[in-house]
Write a structure and sequence with these properties.
The complex is a heterodimer of chains A (504) and B (394).
Chain A (H helix, E strand, L loop, with lengths): L11 H12 L9 H10 L5 H20 L8 H8 L8 H17 L3 H32 L3 H13 L9 H13 L7 H9 L2 H6 L13 H11 L8 H10 L3 E3 L10 H4 L3 E3 L2 E3 L9 E3 L2 E3 L5 H12 L1 H15 L6 H13 L4 H10 L1 H6 L7 H13 L7 H10 L23 H16 L19 H7 L5 H8 L4 H10 L7
Antiparallel strand pairs in A: 1-3, 2-3, 4-5
Chain B lengths: L1 H11 L18 E7 L9 E2 L4 H6 L16 E2 L5 E2 L1 H12 L3 E8 L7 H10 L12 H9 L5 E3 L29 H10 L6 H17 L14 H16 L4 E6 L14 H20 L6 E7 L19 E7 L6 E2 L21 E2 H13 L3 H7 L12
Parallel strand pairs in B: 1-7, 1-8, 5-10, 5-11, 6-7
Antiparallel strand pairs in B: 2-4, 3-4, 5-9, 8-9
Classes of the chains: A mainly alpha (504), B alpha/beta (394).
């Protein structure tokens, strides 16, 4: 059942690779297993294009290229799909204006039933926008040559989690990834904290939009310390949380065009752009003491000082390093590695690229390869990269549905802790059987009519990529299982369900 | 309306149970289900301290009115406490039959007010300073019972409570469609993992999926998009009962959506809706257990209570002491149990929250001890260094 399929339509790039493999077959028989495992970790998973690039420039240059996210060009048909999405033409200001207009219209409707219908329509529009954002992220994860950056975008989106079913959140999520997360994914951690702190998606999600001098809401202040920067038990007290609450009073959202009326002496302190509103009339101007440091009551600058203070704590360097190492190395990463990363974090004042370089250069990274159980996102994206190998997925909506089916949908985690990064959260009996069902769906290309589009049947995954990079490293048990397949779809399901496909 | 719907569904469900028992438990051996409310539910708007003027001062917009003669208002339980009208219809019959009790001032010593740390703490069930053993307390209980109570989690992932004690199966009953693989294909898949660390979960997951698909083949009830919320729980309760009637005697389910920082409502509103769904689910579960309800105990817990005073957004923030529920066909309920203190400003912890007077480990340990006749050494395995508090609930 392992006959190569000639009808595979590879993109031009992949066709070139295929030729290169064929031509170089005698001189350079196959990539080394070590290279494949390394690439499987640096990228979401091996595909022909990434493998060709690695063979061409070597690990050292490949890592440089990935850390710099030097090439983010998507295959033209994928870019065209993204360009066709309404979210690609909508700025935050557009989204907010539309949302405000729709909400204003809602207020003018008296009839209860008409109002309910209008509200439902509004919710539907929001869902459509959030689904587009999920499709866009998944397409980039599968097809972008900047694979490390894509993993980091996911990582930070998960670290600074938002949830699309809360209030107007669905209208804000696409912009949140685009402007708060993406630009800083390999940049500076402090910038990332400030970008998320000032984005309406976060301010709505964790209720700081409602935190005012006269009406405290400590939800965001607590999670900013516990989940975003310091980690729980990092030495801060309930009193520190309450001081952080006071510092964050008045940091809210501008989701309508109405500028607040302020006294003359406060007007200069107002901040209002891109959905953010710092309203001095809602701010507590008293002095604060955070983590033993005095912060003079002055307005929004207090927030900047507080964030500087948080990210400069050794606890923050350690907390973020631990999480990165858990994601990229092992469920229980070696302490010396985490310490080394934390030192880099402190020395570079939170330069994410430098911290990652410490991680990837460490011997602990090399010895961990192939042993990390894939979370559903890694499982889905690596499987699609293998199965489609650069070819266009007929309907990106399928990627969204598939990821949701494994309980790790984007913008779908309700609580701010984000999805867990360890195997025990994903390898239970119920999850393994759900994962095999996904393997089956991917393996047959889900031939049922999907979203009104009839899907072509997936050919057997047995092209050059499989022959060169996968097959030589399959266990005899897996090969024996493949031999028992009674159809290409079943063969694909077994391949994607195999232990080798579930670890990186 | 909803309840009738469940009963109708139940009547239509096949009565034949699971085949393939792994052991022969005596017909009357106890069953236990833990319901974990994730998010820290606001217990003061479930079990209302109506005798406290301070309650009404602290919650100007979300307090629940004092019980009166009406049958649609709060249900007076004793001189201090009343039950929210949101759960009255579902729970009053159980309370009258002494099949439900509430334990206020319950919870953990953990004062982080972190959802995630406190949930983990409870699920580990370990003393505050012990971090060597990272297993969950239900896993240790299952090990201690040594086959007397077959465990299962009705969740899509395996909860911490059941981790670290051998392989415990889990399956969400939110969606129970046709199984994707037939027996031959399942055997091929399981074969690929036979020599790996995942051999047992893989084999068990495939088998359980087949079983459930068969068991609920005629079950036309659609669950709420698989979301784990109180409404979803109401939908799944009869299925959980069906599985616990026969093979499984130690179960876990979690229900989310309790983190009411904003606009939580009072007698009506977001929290009332969630509580109503939860209560209807539990009532449906009790009903569906049939004659086995008399041997079944359910505990409802949450990581912490919420601030006693409402916050600036008609909601509540993270607090401390909670109210746990204990239900069962044979329990000595119909009362508010455990250590109590007068609800007033001076008795609040840090002028903010309910204190914890009934430690969860002592409370659950006491229940387990009576249910299964555990001795001190066995109890110490489940909850090391805890003193079982016997509230004589079971």
């Amino acid at each position: 059942m392992s006959k190569p399929t000639s009808a595979v339509h590879l993109s031009r790039l992949c066709a070139t690779v295929l030729v290169a493999f064929a031509a170089g077959a005698q001189a350079d028989p196959a990539p080394s297993h070590a290279d494949l495992l390394w690439l499987d970790r640096i990228a979401y998973g091996v595909d022909s294009a990434s493998l060709a690039r690695l063979e061409q420039i070597g690990r050292h240059n490949f890592l440089d290229e990935q850390l710099a996210a030097r090439d983010e060009r998507l295959p033209p048909p994928i870019q065209a799909q993204i360009d066709a999405m309404p979210i690609s033409h909508q700025t935050m200001a557009d989204a907010i204006a539309k949302l405000a207009a729709a909400r204003d219209k809602l207020k003018t409707i008296d009839d209860a039933q008409a109002k309910a219908e209008e509200r439902k329509a509004l919710r539907k529009q929001g869902v459509a926008l959030a689904v587009q954002a999920q499709e866009r992220e998944l397409l980039r994860a599968v097809y972008s040559p900047a694979q490390l950056k894509e993993q980091m975008v996911w990582f930070w989106l998960n670290h600074f989690n938002v949830f699309d079913r809360k209030g107007p959140e669905a209208w804000l999520d696409a912009d949140y990834v685009e402007t708060a997360i993406r630009p800083h994914a390999l940049g500076n951690f402090r910038d990332l904290v400030m970008a998320t702190l000032t984005h309406p998606a976060m301010l709505v999600y964790l209720d700081n939009a409602r935190n005012a001098a006269a009406h405290h809401n400590e939800n965001y202040a607590r999670e900013l310390m516990e989940l975003h920067t310091l980690g729980v038990n990092a030495g801060y007290t309930q009193n520190d949380v309450q001081e952080m609450v006071r510092i964050l009073t008045g940091v809210g959202v501008a989701l309508n065009p109405r500028t607040p009326r302020l006294r003359a002496n406060q007007q200069a302190l107002l901040i209002r752009h891109d959905g953010l509103e710092f309203n001095p009339a809602r701010h507590d101007f008293g002095d604060k003491v955070l983590l033993g440091h005095g912060i003079r009551g002055s307005g929004f600058d207090e927030v900047r000082q507080a964030v500087d203070l948080l990210v400069a704590q050794p606890a923050c360097a350690h907390f973020i390093s631990q999480e990165l190492a858990t994601y990229f190395v092992a469920d229980d990463p070696p302490a010396p590695l985490v310490d080394a990363m934390a030192r880099t974090f402190q020395r570079t004042h939170g330069d994410i690229r430098s911290v990652l370089r410490t991680l990837f250069d460490a011997p602990e990274f090399a010895t961990s390869l192939g042993k990390k159980f894939k979370d559903p996102m890694h499982y889905l994206v690596s499987s699609v990269r293998l199965a489609y190998d650069g070819r266009e997925v007929p309907d990106p909506r399928r990627l969204v549905v598939w990821l949701n089916s494994q309980g790790e949908g984007e913008f779908a985690h309700q609580t701010p802790d984000g999805y867990p990064l360890v195997a025990s959260a994903w390898d239970s009996s119920g999850q393994m059987s759900a994962r095999f069902e996904l393997a089956r769906a991917m393996g047959r290309g889900d031939v049922r009519r999907f979203g009104g589009v009839a899907m072509p049947q997936m050919p057997q995954i047995s092209g050059a990529l499989f022959v060169q990079a996968i097959k030589p490293w399959l266990s005899s048990t897996t090969l024996a299982a493949l031999d028992q397949a009674k159809s290409p779809a079943e063969w694909n399901a077994y391949l994607l369900a195999a232990p080798e496909s579930n670890y990186r | 309306m909803q309840r009738r719907h469940f009963l109708a569904t139940l009547a239509a469900a096949p009565l034949a149970g699971f085949t393939g028992r792994v052991f022969a438990a005596p017909a009357s051996s106890p069953r236990f289900l833990l319901v974990f409310l994730r998010g820290g539910y606001d217990c003061a708007n479930l079990l209302v301290p109506y005798a406290s003027d301070f309650y009404y001062e602290s919650r100007p917009s979300i307090a629940i009115a004092r019980p009166d003669s009406s049958t649609s208002g709060a249900l007076r339980l004793d001189a201090d406490w009343a039950l929210s009208p949101a759960v009255r219809e579902a729970l009053e019959p159980l309370y009258t039959k002494k099949q439900i009790a509430f334990v206020p001032f319950a919870g953990t010593p953990n004062l982080s007010r972190s959802h995630f740390e406190t949930q983990d703490d409870i699920e580990h069930g370990l003393p505050e300073n012990a971090h060597a053993d990272r297993s969950g307390f239900l896993a240790r209980l299952s090990g201690t019972l040594n086959g007397v109570a077959t465990p299962i989690a009705f969740t899509s992932s395996l909860p911490l409570s059941f981790q670290g004690g051998g392989d415990v199966p889990n399956i969400s009953l939110a969606r129970v469609g046709k199984a994707a693989f037939d027996a031959r294909q399942s055997a091929v898949l399981a074969g690929m993992y036979k020599d790996t660390a995942l051999a047992q979960p893989v084999a068990e997951g495939l088998a359980l999926r087949q079983q459930v698909a068969g068991e609920f083949a005629d079950d036309m009830m659609k669950a709420s998009r698989g979301a784990v919320n109180a409404y979803g729980f109401t939908q799944q309760a009869p299925r959980i009962a069906q599985m616990m009637r026969d093979k499984y005697r130690l179960g876990f389910i979690d229900v989310g959506g309790w983190d009411t920082h904003v606009g939580e409502g009072g007698a009506q509103g977001a929290l009332a809706n969630n509580l109503g769904n939860l209560a209807r689910g539990l009532a449906a579960f009790a009903q569906a257990m049939g004659e086995d309800w008399k041997d079944t105990t359910v505990a409802v817990v949450s990581e912490f209570g919420r601030t006693f005073r409402e916050n600036g957004n008609r909601g509540t923030d993270h607090g401390h002491g909670s109210v746990y529920w204990v239900l069962g066909g044979g329990i000595a309920g119909g009362r508010v149990a455990g250590e109590q203190v007068k609800v007033a400003q001076p008795t609040l912890l840090q002028n903010r929250d309910f204190p914890v007077l009934n430690d969860y480990r002592g409370l659950l340990g006491g229940v387990f001890a009576r249910l299964w006749g555990l001795n001190a050494a066995q109890l110490a395995r489940v909850f090391p260094q805890a003193r079982a508090e016997d509230l004589r609930l079971v």
